[in-house]
């Protein structure tokens, strides 16, 4: 058994290595990409011969601007003169309307930026230090607000102010190299991060982890930084061409920047603005309004009209890289499936855990098999949106069934969704709602672009605004909502899922998940820029949206876009094509045993509390919700059941 398990693990490692190689070399064997990036390497080597401490190259890389830090004497320490040179470069970039993306990198081996120039700082009078640091903070904020997407290529130490510079960028890649140390280490010198680090790191990885790192002046490796989310990715050099071994992060930055040059440039700039300003808004509603204004600016652009003739069936064709990802997924899944089936009497610990999670217990298969037949009955209905609030004991099901257009958000289909939402808003008996699809291989294909092409430009903002308002109503439904994603959820389809409280995705070949609007020179206009950024953090959300990335269910679960990726081979045969729906019913059944009023008030406390202007205001909202709960019969039933050591029976009053 152990020999077979080891063989399986070796096979999986081989597949992972192939997959990693494909990530870096997307064309056949990667030869064309290596040649292109080799020419970029030679251009970078030419830049290193320049004498300026900050070099801006906006012409050599086909829409990619490069700001190279080259203060060799002081290892890119932030001295007064070096900072002044950076400010000049930023002034150029603020006026630049041609560059589609900016890479900030270092030409000093082993160093990205060493932080403040403490030797120079020691000579500055105490009264002048706040204005000096304030100027640096303002400069980094200007970098953060540059109109184009910005990437920090960290191939060496980024400490103190060096990491604060990287945090001002939208995306960060770090090379797995011996000298690559990353951290805000100011407390070691009796200082605090003063150039934006306390705020940006806390927003990026969360208050608790940020405090842990900053209090202890922790230095992280690239792999540790990627695991915590300080950088988007740690790039290993052994998979790269020899000339890039010392600068893997720069290689990855050029690769990612090349992707962005194929997207709509105006859409990228407005997408960035929507995320930046939306995350600073006082509420999600205000953030959605900002997104709407950005979308409105985009409507009359020529780039947007370039995408309209494309078929609304975004799921009909896979990109080259997506096809290979699917092929590799199938190979991995086949290996895993074979291993589990052969070792049926001696499951690995992970499989036993998964079986417990998915309900392969003595009763789980039987009672969920009874749930399958009503779902199959729903698929015989002719309505494009089928709402069933009676068949599942407190679980409402809203099934999308627009077979002809793969659930694309056409005008008639959206009107039917709106009718269903009207019913659910007034529904006091349903304890949880599941939104699923009855169209094989598709959850929702996003906007109906064929129909959209016929809409006059002046009418598009109100059309998109109406959809955004509808998805916000789904977000504000009183009961918990679950999206069961057993197929493609692209563009507006993912935005619909993001409006739900919980998302489960099936590990299936056609399950692709992503906000791919920038590929068609538009931006996610139905709440995606705001919800995805709040869900997985600004940096990861920007990385995915800028590049119009399509994720598998496993990738989406790893990033936190969905709560769980559900594997089908552990489920009863009748659920193999809809594992996410199976998991949704399992979770919904759990919720039906909880206090229904408590669930509704809990949801309200979280939704409204996260939109509060301060923690204190959020705590007050929680207090008001708890106050409403105190006099309910359900609460007294819960107390009695606890004292009598029995299961509580709740009635929702």
UniProtKB/TrEMBL annotation:
Gene Ontology molecular functions: enoyl-CoA hydratase activity
GO cellular component, one term: mitochondrion
GO biological process, one term: fatty acid beta-oxidation
Organism, as annotated: Calicophoron daubneyi (Rumen fluke)
Keyword line: Lyase
Entries under Pfam families matching the protein: ECH_1
Keyword Transferase: no
Gene3D superfamilies: 2-enoyl-CoA Hydratase, Chain A, domain 1, Lyase 2-enoyl-coa Hydratase, Chain A, domain 2
Family statement drawn from the similarity comment of this UniProt entry: Belongs to the enoyl-CoA hydratase/isomerase family.
SUPFAM superfamilies: ClpP/crotonase (SSF52096)
Protein name, entry field: Enoyl-CoA hydratase
């Amino acid at each position: 058994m152990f020999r077979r398990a080891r063989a399986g693990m070796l096979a999986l490692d081989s597949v992972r290595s192939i997959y990693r190689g494909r990530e870096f070399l997307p064309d056949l064997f990667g030869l064309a990409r290596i040649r292109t990036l080799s020419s970029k390497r030679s251009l970078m080597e030419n830049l290193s011969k320049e004498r300026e401490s900050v070099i801006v190259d906006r012409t050599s890389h086909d829409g990619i601007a490069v700001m190279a830090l080259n203060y060799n004497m002081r290892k890119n320490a932030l001295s007064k003169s070096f900072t002044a040179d950076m400010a000049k470069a930023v002034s150029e970039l603020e006026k630049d309307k041609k560059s589609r993306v900016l890479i900030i990198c270092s030409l000093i081996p082993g160093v990205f930026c060493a932080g403040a120039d403490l030797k120079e700082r020691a000579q500055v009078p105490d009264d002048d230090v706040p204005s000096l640091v304030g100027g640096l903070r303002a400069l980094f904020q200007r970098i953060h607000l540059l109109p184009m997407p910005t990437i920090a290529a960290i191939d060496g130490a980024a400490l103190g102010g060096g990491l604060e510079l990287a945090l001002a960028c939208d995306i960060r890649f770090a090379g797995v190299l011996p000298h690559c140390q990353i951290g805000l280490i100011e407390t070691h010198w009796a200082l605090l991060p003063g150039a934006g680090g306390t705020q940006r790191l806390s927003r990026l990885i969360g208050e608790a982890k940020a405090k842990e790192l900053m209090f202890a002046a922790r230095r992280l490796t690239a792999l540790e930084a990627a695991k915590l989310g300080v950088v988007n990715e740690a790039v290993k050099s052994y998979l790269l061409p020899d000339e890039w071994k010392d600068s893997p992060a720069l290689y990855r930055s050029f690769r990612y920047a090349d992707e962005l040059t194929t997207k709509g440039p105006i859409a990228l700039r407005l997408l960035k603005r929507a995320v930046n300003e939306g995350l600073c808004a006082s509420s999600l509603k205000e953030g959605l309004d900002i997104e709407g204004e950005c979308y409105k600016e985009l409507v009359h652009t020529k780039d947007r009209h370039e995408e309209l003739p494309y078929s609304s069936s975004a799921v009909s064709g896979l990109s080259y890289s997506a096809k290979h990802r699917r092929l590799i997924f199938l190979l991995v899944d086949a290996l895993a499936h074979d291993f589990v089936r052969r070792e049926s009497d001696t499951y690995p610990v992970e499989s036993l855990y998964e079986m417990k999670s998915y309900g392969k217990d003595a009763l789980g298969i039987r009672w969920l098999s009874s749930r399958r037949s009503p779902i199959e009955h729903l698929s015989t209905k002719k309505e494009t949106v089928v709402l069933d609030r009676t068949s599942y004991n407190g679980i409402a099901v809203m099934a999308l069934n627009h077979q002809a257009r793969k659930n694309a958000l056409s005008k008639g289909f959206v009107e039917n969704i709106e009718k269903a939402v009207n019913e659910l808003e007034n529904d006091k008996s349903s304890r949880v709602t599941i939104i699923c699809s009855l169209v094989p291989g598709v959850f929702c294909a996003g906007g109906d672009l064929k129909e959209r092409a016929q809409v006059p430009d002046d009418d598009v903002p109100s059309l998109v605004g109406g959809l955004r308002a509808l998805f916000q109503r789904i977000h504000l439904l009183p009961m918990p909502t679950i999206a069961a994603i057993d197929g493609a959820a692209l563009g507006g389809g993912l935005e619909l899922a993001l409006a739900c409280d919980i998302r489960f995705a099936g590990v299936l070949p056609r399950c692709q998940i992503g906000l791919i609007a920038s590929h068609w020179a538009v931006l996610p206009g139905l709440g995606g820029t705001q919800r995805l950024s709040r869900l997985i953090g600004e940096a990861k959300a920007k990385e995915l949206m800028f590049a119009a990335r399509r994720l598998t269910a496993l990738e989406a679960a790893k990033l936190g876009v969905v709560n769980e990726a559900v594997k089908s081979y552990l489920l009863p045969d009748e659920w193999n094509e809809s594992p996410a729906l199976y998991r949704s019913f399992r979770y919904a059944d759990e919720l039906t045993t909880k206090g229904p009023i408590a669930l509704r008030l809990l949801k309200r406390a979280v939704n409204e509390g996260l939109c509060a202007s301060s923690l204190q205001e959020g705590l007050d909202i929680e207090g008001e919700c708890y106050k409403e709960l105190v006099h309910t019969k359900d609460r007294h039933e819960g107390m009695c059941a606890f004292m009598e050591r029995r299961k509580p029976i709740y009635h929702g009053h």
